[in-house]
Amino acid sequence: MTRLQSLLKKNKRRVIGSMSGTSCDGLDLAVVDIKGRGKNSRINVIYTFHVPYTQKQKEYLLDIITSKSMALKDLSQVNFYLAQIWANSIKKMLRRTRISAETIDMIGSHGHTFYHFPQDEKIIDHSVRSTLQLGDPAVLAQLTGITTVGDFRVSDMAVGGQGAPLVPYFDWILFSKYKKNIIALNIGGIANISFIPASGDRGKIIAFDTGPGNMLIDQLMQRLYELPFDRNGRIAKRGHFIPKLFSFLQSRDTYPAQKPPKSTGREHYGSEFVIDIIKKALRWRTPEPDVLNTITRYTAVTVFNAVKDYITDSVDEVVVSGGGSRNPVIMGMLQELFGKVPVKKSIEYGIDVDYKEAICFAVLANELLNGLPTNVKSVTGAHKEILLGKICPV
Ligand SMILES: Nc1ncnc2c1ncn2[C@@H]1O[C@H](COP(=O)(O)OP(=O)(O)O)[C@@H](O)[C@H]1O
Ligand SMILES: [Mg+2]
Predict the structure, then answer these.
(1) How far apart are CA 356 and CA 350, in angstroms?
(2) Could you report the per-residue pLDDT of 280-322, keeping only the tens digit for each?
(3) 1 has a pLDDT exceeding 80
(4) Which numbered atom of ligand 1 lies nearest the CA of 217?
(5) Measured in angstroms, how far is the CA atom of residue 217 from the centroid of ligand 1?
């Protein structure tokens, strides 16, 4: 029996989940023991590890991601480069934890999104939509010696889906047992929500990107303060809310009015958007902390409005994860907007706010080997539920 055949037969697997988010802050790793399948999965997080990108690495990635025209050579190289540095990060984590590589059954690697283009474009004689996650899983498999599952999004897109979000399947496994109407909110570079109904009915899950997470805040911090992000919301806290700037954002941003299913990214909330904000702020002589305060509120309001506009059921609780949940100003604004509905952190449900997505991709990889579809049709807009991911065996 090959290793892959015996891996397929297992009822319990030890999986490393790996995520490199749109914030380009670094690689998140989680070692997860998973027993069983589907809603009966028992998920036990053994270890989590974050490897920040150096300033040079971050600039290298962002240069490629934000460039308008890119040499194919660079695209080819970065695909291998990421797999190489991630393999080193994984080995470093295993040395640190004294977990031997032989006890790891596989890696579930999201990869890093370089382009996400979920709308139709006519190319010669076909309508084409596409998404590109790099950091090649086959290279990662060979360099770590661990079977790797990667490229989860492409198959969903091939059957008419947006290829995103994929976390709702994991949210469904996590939250449906509590029999409450739960909004799981992840505030990464982009913010996204999953509505998990108390009934646990998979067909009634609603999930989509609500708009900016930390992406606008981070870019403004870099341009105005040369800092990577607004640690603990310190700058936003000092600033005031500027209604005029807020109205400008609302008129500039076409995304919130789009009906779900929908997804977004740096293509929309990238440098052009941020430069427009800065131009207005300069013209109106808006103090920098006020810009940060207003943008932070805009971020919270787009989340709240998304729930108000597109989730018709009442909500019992909001459970927040992602780096943005560490920003007390965002959290405070969210609680104020949601009023009586409690806004909690995912750690209250045993999920570390920083590693939810890494854990999720461990679970999605495991479900592929279990033969279970993990795209949620109602969410991505796909025609059918299918198995997600490419298996790269060793
Ligand atoms: N202490 C903190 N205060 C404010 N913001 C924070 C804090 N810690 C993390 N963040 C924000 O979280 C971001 C990283 O979030 P993350 O969930 O890793 O996003 P992604 O999935 O896009 O990589 C940082 O860029 C920063 O904006
Ligand atoms: Mg991150």
Answers:
(1) 10
(2) 999 999 999 999 999 999 999 999 999 999 999 999 999 999 9
(3) no
(4) 27
(5) 10
